[in-house]
Design brief:
2 domains, 10 helices, Rossmann fold, alpha/beta, Dihydrodipicolinate Reductase, domain 2, 333 residues, 6-stranded parallel beta sheet, binds NADP nicotinamide-adenine-dinucleotide phosphate, 7-stranded mixed beta sheet, 15 strands
Length: 333
């Protein structure tokens, strides 16, 4: 039987996830949609899906067995808490919430419910290249991981809409999460360095270099460049005690033409991570069908929120800003 899903937020990624849930994946049916803009929700609704004006009405609808949240970040907490109160599995796009206090409230509600219900949209964990990289590190043949170099380059960001805080509180969360996951470690401190600014983004703080200090002592350096022009380029390399393991450059197709021999670069995150988005939903559909969640959790959302908060503080202070976490609830062990 198909999992009956309601989607909240039918903007850029909500529309893409509806396409994925209706045209790519099986075992799932989009039976309801909601957006603060009713006309946008109506336009995005698949045939037969009910359109709700209010997200809470969608969450409580008897026909909706599980919920996908693709609204903007500040709306996530209220919608997550309503899903947990209703006992419905929920896939939530990142960020989990926009404050540490909000993350603690979501975790307290989920722990109180007694079972994981929340899966967070950190799709890199479902990418085949990252999974192979993690398997090499976990296999132990290279020894302990010591350094992780993460590169996050966007071709461009919308002028005026993408602000100087966003490399740190919007973009960094993907690198912080994948670093924690790859290294099996927690972030305990964050430093930020801002080199000469790119003239492309005018006053935008771009690029930035972030140093994540982990509990084991491993160091993670993250380059975030958001107006680099040539494409969406994601790289990762782990230096271990006895060797180095790295992501391949994607896509691997080699083009030879009048400009020389080169590899094409994905235009954006949709192209680079298309299979990862499909896979994260494949695994979510199975877990949600069992009344629970898998992969990135509320705890991971909490950890990335703390890293982003510390990065914002570090950009101002120029210092190593500590990250202090609560004791991990057994639900997230
Ligand atoms: P978007 O195009 O602005 O879409 C968000 C939609 O949600 C808009 O239609 C917005 O309406 C609507 N909305 C806002 N508040 C709402 C509420 N309270 N209830 C219902 N609908 C509401 O943004 P997006 O790029 O799709 O991003 C959505 C979320 O996905 C964000 O949290 C973003 O960080 C995340 N995201 C994740 C990835 C990833 O790689 N995993 C990539 C892109 C985005 P209005 O426009 O009228 O406000």
């Amino acid at each position: 039987m198909s999992l009956k899903v309601g989607v909240i937020g039918t903007g850029m990624i909500g529309t893409d996830h509806i396409r994925r849930l209706t045209q790519v994946l099986s075992g799932v049916e989009v039976v309801a949609v909601s957006d603060i803009d009713a006309a946008r929700a109506k336009a995005a609704a698949p045939a037969g899906a009910e359109v709700f004006d209010r997200a809470t009405d969608l969450i409580h609808a008897a026909a909706v067995q599980a919920v996908v949240i693709c609204s903007w970040g500040p709306a996530h907490e209220e919608q997550l808490l309503a899903c947990i109160a209703a006992g419905k599995p929920v896939f939530c796009e990142k960020p989990l919430v926009t404050s540490e206090a909000g993350a603690l409230r979501v975790m307290a509600a989920e722990v109180g419910f007694g079972r994981r219900l929340v899966q967070l949209g950190f799709m890199r964990r479902f990418d085949a290249d990252y999974r192979r990289l993690k398997a090499v590190i976990d296999g132990g043949s290279l020894g302990a991981p010591l350094l992780y170099h993460s590169v996050h380059r966007n071709a461009s960001v919308p002028e005026g809409l993408y602000t100087s805080d966003m490399p740190l509180n919007d973009t960094l969360v993907h690198d912080a999460d994948i670093a924690r996951w790859l290294l099996g470690d927690e972030i305990i401190g964050v430093e930020v360095r801002v080199p000469r600014r790119s003239s492309v983004g005018k006053d935008l703080r771009d690029p930035v270099v972030v140093l994540l200090h982990t509990a084991s002592g491993a160091l993670v350096d993250v380059e975030i460049s958001v107006n680099i022009g040539y494409g969406y380029d994601i790289r990762g390399e782990v230096s271990c005690e006895r060797g180095v393991a790295a992501l391949p450059n994607r896509p691997a197709t080699v083009i030879s033409d009048q400009h020389g021999i080169r590899q094409a670069i994905p235009a954006d995150w949709r192209e680079r991570f298309i299979e990862a988005y499909d896979q994260e939903f494949r695994e979510w559909i199975v877990a949600a069908g069992r009344g629970t969640a898998t992969g990135p959790s509320s705890w991971d959302g909490y950890a990335s929120t703390l890293a982003a908060d510390a990065a914002l503080r570090a950009a101002k202070s120029g210092l190593l800003e500590p990250v202090t976490m609560i004791t991990k609830p057994p639900l997230y062990a």
